[in-house]
TrEMBL record:
Transmembrane intervals: none
Pfam entry (one): CitF
GO biological process, one term: acetyl-CoA metabolic process
Name by which UniProt lists this protein: Citrate lyase alpha chain
Record organism: Thermosinus carboxydivorans Nor1
Subcellular location field: Cytoplasm
GO MF: citrate (pro-3S)-lyase activity; citrate CoA-transferase activity
GO cellular component: ATP-independent citrate lyase complex; cytoplasm
Length: 513
């Protein structure tokens, strides 16, 4: 089949099933009810605290073929996934599906579980490091399902991703299962990506290294959704929350692009009272917050809210009165953790509230502007943030497609060349975010505006921004670096890329070697 952005999609994907091709960013209309987890009862005097993960497996009835879920709020500092899967291997379990909201280098032990058959399926929103490389080369029998952050919440709520047991890394918990992300030695801040898991899983196990007296406060996930509590030595290292994709660039070219992106927002007329803003995880995109802040200060503007992955820059803007609220589904650094613990205007929300397209209105719909990155962008403004120039998986949508769909103005900030290769191509290797939801591309050599937004182009030209056609920028990049050779991939599908509505926007095929 050919989907709405011209990608060739199979009618059926092995171990995935029949495919619904992507038809457009806002074409899908839901026709289902939300799923319901099993009803259970805990009688007075019954204890929830268990002695070990092994006991939790027995009490939860974990068996071959089940789906176990995890969150990624510790990012590259997570310790719970490896601990739980080591227990599964010890108990001789096979054919498990791991529903982990994002995969980082710390999760490299997954590869051995793939090879041994302990884990045979993976459902995630983002992958980097050894696991992504191994999947790209065909180590996993079934294709990985790559979702968006909002799409994962949708899939869980609507019953497409059914979770048997959710293991929630809990920075703090009490003996009745109340969980907090802002207390304890491993405090990570918001636990928003675990909210759907806790709400809809058949069984929920809190794994904590900080057991406190009942009742814990504040509560992120309540006792009513937690079946068991297991105390371990350490759930993870909060220093791993901060990684290379969450540090603001010091590169002069990156800073120039960030400043240009802020000028685009200003020229679009969005720097005004009530402004709502999100940045993605990337050096130049995060630096844009700095320049937006300067413009807000000069204009005497107070914004409504900032959204998404939260950094110290955004916390500082809240504390200086530039924004009234932070809506936080994930902390990107330790300043964000401190802020959500102390500031009542720093709000913790779940992934569904943040970006699920199938509810009565998610937060991304209220965004004025979002700043995002790209591995590639094509002349139709489709964006790739899944595969690198070698065809290997090195990321995923996360909230990219969600925020792009919701915002009034979506800006992609990217160097014209990436690793000596042009970032603008005729056709991206892997389509992640459809061009209809991308408004502006900002590079160090000029700004391109989607032809759908002639109104915006006129404003940018009037403001003196260096507006060029995307084809001009592509030609300039190719003049500098040449036309890149096409990547050769095999026929086998190693990942199915879902758009946020559950349709297939593209597939990833196995790389050679």
């Amino acid at each position: 089949m050919i989907n709405a952005i011209g990608r060739e999609i199979p009618e059926t994907i092995n171990d995935y099933g029949p495919v619904k091709p992507f038809a457009g960013a806002f074409k899908a209309v839901p026709d289902m009810c939300r799923q319901a987890p099993r009803v259970k009862v805990v009688r007075p005097g019954e204890a929830k605290v268990l002695s070990s993960l092994e006991e939790a497996f027995h009490r939860a009835g974990v068996r071959d073929g089940m789906t176990l879920s995890f969150h990624h709020h510790f990012r590259n500092g997570d310790g719970v996934v490896n601990m739980v899967l080591a227990t599964a291997a010890k108990l001789g379990l096979k054919n498990l599906k791991v529903a982990l909201s994002s995969v980082f280098p710390v999760h490299a032990p997954l590869i051995e579980h793939f090879k041994s058959g302990v884990v045979t399926a993976l459902d995630t929103n983002y992958m980097s490091g050894p696991v992504a490389q191994a999947v790209s080369r065909g180590v996993l029998a079934q294709p990985v399902i790559l979702r968006t952050h909002g799409g994962r919440a949708r899939a869980i709520e609507c019953g497409e991703l059914r979770i048997d047991v959710a293991f929630i890394a809990a920075p703090a918990a009490d003996d009745y299962g109340n969980i907090s992300g802002v207390l304890g030695p491993a405090a990570c801040g918001s636990l928003g990506y675990a909210f759907p898991d806790a709400e809809y899983a058949d069984c929920v196990v809190a794994v904590t290294d900080h057991l406190v007296e009942y009742p814990l406060a504040p509560v992120s996930i309540p006792q009513t959704r937690v079946d068991y509590v297991v105390k371990v030595d350490s759930v993870g290292d909060p220093k791993g929350i901060v990684s290379g994709t969450t540090r603001i660039t010091k590169d002069p070219v990156g800073l120039k692009m960030a400043e240009t992106a802020a000028r685009v927002i200003e020229a679009a007329g969005l720097i005004k009272d009530g402004f709502a803003f999100q940045t993605g995880a990337g050096g130049a995109t995060l630096a844009t917050a700095h320049f937006v802040r300067q413009k807000m200060l000069r204009a005497g503007v107070t914004g409504s809210f900032v959204l998404g992955g939260i950094t110290g820059y955004l916390v500082d803007m809240l504390e200086k009165g530039l924004f009234k609220k932070i809506i936080d589904v994930q902390g990107f650094d330790l300043e964000a953790v401190r802020s959500i613990a102390t500031n009542p205007n720093h709000l913790e929300v779940g992934a569904g509230f943040y970006a699920n397209p199938f509810n009565a209105g998610c937060a991304v719909n209220k965004l004025d502007a979002v700043i995002l990155g790209a591995t590639e962008i094509d002349t139709d403004f489709n964006v790739n943030v899944v595969t690198g120039s070698d065809g290997v998986i090195m990321g995923g949508s996360g909230g990219h497609s969600d925020a792009a769909a919701g915002a009034k103005v979506t800006i992609v900030v990217a160097n014209l060349l990436r690793g000596r290769l042009p970032i603008i191509v005729d056709k991206v290797l892997t389509a992640t975010t459809p061009g209809e939801t991308i408004d502006v591309l900002v590079t160090e050599r000029g700004v391109a505006v989607n032809p759908r937004r002639a109104d915006l182009r006129d404003k940018l030209v009037a403001a003196g921004l260096p507006v060029k056609e995307i084809g001009e920028l592509k030609a300039l990049a190719e003049k500098i670096a040449g036309v890149p050779a096409k990547i050769k991939t095999g026929g086998r599908i190693v990942a199915a890329v879902e758009y946020r509505d559950g349709t297939i926007i593209d597939v990833v095929r196995q790389v050679e070697g």
